[in-house]
Specification:
Oligomer: single chain
Order of helices and strands: EEEHEEHHEHHHHEHEHEEHHHHEEH
Shape: globular
Distance between the termini: 25 Å
Largest sheet: 8 strands, mixed
Radius of gyration: 23 Å
Structural class: alpha/beta
Strand content: 15-25%
Number of helices: 14
Number of strands: 12
Bound molecules: adenosine-5'-diphosphate, magnesium ion
Length: 355
């Protein structure tokens, strides 16, 4: 079972906020998950819910706002949001403190300030120590947009090796030919240009460019969303074979559940910057607990006329939480390995329903 393998990626309380003027977009807001060695994890949610931002934060294209990311046992990124939040609270507490409590509140504020400075230093040190993560490679939705039209396939695939400083032309050629074979392309494709290929073939080029770097993990960001349905399965099978043959872990991002269903060991569902449900695939499909997951499932057509006749599209209506409930929302484990973002009271209710 996948659950016994050691973790390759661990993301804890990740926050990625974007400021523009006074407005703040909380693109990723307290997201935690892991990907084990050799595991395929699906990340699903509608457009704009923060999937790409999560991926870009993990590979260090952004300085993360908050939370921590571990890769292969090493802490590679740390944000400072939690410490800054504690500092904000300490400041507010000092302001509100009665005269007799001021001294203690002031001491707490100093402590919070020191912790903030420590966190900032750690965040900066990690940016310096791990400026990029080449052990994680990305594959993108639109292969054409990510392939330079003026470069041959060989040059595109070899680019990462050259950036890494490889100069041995013979070795580069051998490696390119090797990965072309692995992704189902032919040696003579090496000297052609991206426009000479179909969408599915271009996505194979994208995969070749990623695996030549010998990554431990691939993040595939909607890699089949732009492809014909008939081609989607081919690319998905190719990614599946990378896991089988090379042991590569995959974080597979998609906007609907049907694509990831048969392919993922576990699935995380995102909604407005939050991870709202996380479970093994079969479990998620058999027992979806979050209203948003239920609505996503209800949108999947099935090749069963009886089911189709009964299938009702559920429209998700987010519950109205009080500010206290809102503050209590967290990802909670309802059944072993099955997590839902809910309040403590909701968690008790969900656990009770199963009995
Ligand atoms: N660089 C950025 N600056 C400001 N806002 C951004 C940036 N990148 C993404 N966003 C916003 O963050 C939210 C999540 O975007 P994204 O991660 O691309 O979603 P998804 O990949 O799930 O469609 C969106 O509201 C988007 O507009
Ligand atoms: Mg996206």
């Amino acid at each position: 079972m996948a659950t016994e393998k050691p973790e390759l990626l661990r993301v804890e309380h990740l926050r990625q906020y974007f400021k523009s003027g006074h407005a703040v977009t909380k693109a990723v807001d307290d997201v935690s998950f892991s990907v084990k060695n050799g595991e395929i994890v699906g990340l699903v949610g509608e457009s704009g819910c923060g999937k790409t931002t999560t991926a870009r934060s993990v590979i260090k294209l952004y300085n993360i706002t908050g939370g921590k990311v571990w890769f292969d046992g090493e802490l590679i990124s740390a944000g400072t949001w939690d410490e800054q939040e504690a500092l904000r609270q300490a400041k507010a507490a000092l302001k509100a403190a009665a005269p007799s409590e001021k001294a203690e509140a002031r001491a707490r504020l100093l402590e919070a300030k020191a912790k903030c400075r420590e966190a900032e230093a750690q965040s900066k040190a990690l940016r310096k120590k791990y400026p990029t993560v080449t052990q994680i490679q990305m594959i993108f939705q639109d292969p054409m947009a990510s392939l330079n039209p003026r470069m041959t396939i060989k040059e595109i695939i070899a680019e990462g090796l050259r950036i890494r400083g490889m100069k041995d032309e013979k070795k580069i050629s051998d490696m390119v030919m090797d990965v072309l074979g692995k992704v189902g392309l032919l040696p003579e494709h090496a000297n052609r240009y991206p426009h000479e290929f179909s969408g599915g073939q271009r996505q194979r080029i994208g995969v070749a460019r990623a695996i030549i770097m010998e990554p431990k993990m691939i993040i595939a960001d909607e890699p089949v969303s732009a492809l014909d349905v008939s081609i989607q399965a081919q690319v998905i099978n190719l990614l599946g074979s990378l896991r089988e043959e090379m042991g590569i872990s995959i974080l597979f991002i998609a906007h609907d559940l049907s694509v990831v269903k048969y392919f993922s060991d576990r699935i995380g569902v995102m909604y407005f910057g939050h991870l709202v449900e996380l479970a093994e695939s079969d479990e998620l499909f058999a027992r979806p607990l979050h209203g948003y997951t239920q609505s996503l499932l209800s949108a999947i057509p099935m090749p069963d006329p009886h089911y189709e006749k009964r299938r009702k599209r559920i429209i998700y209506q987010p519950p109205q939480y009080t500010p206290e409930e809102e503050a209590d929302l967290a990802l909670r484990e309802i059944f072993p390995g099955h997590f839902v973002r809910c309040t403590a009271a909701e968690a008790e209710r969900l656990k009770g329903q199963a009995q």
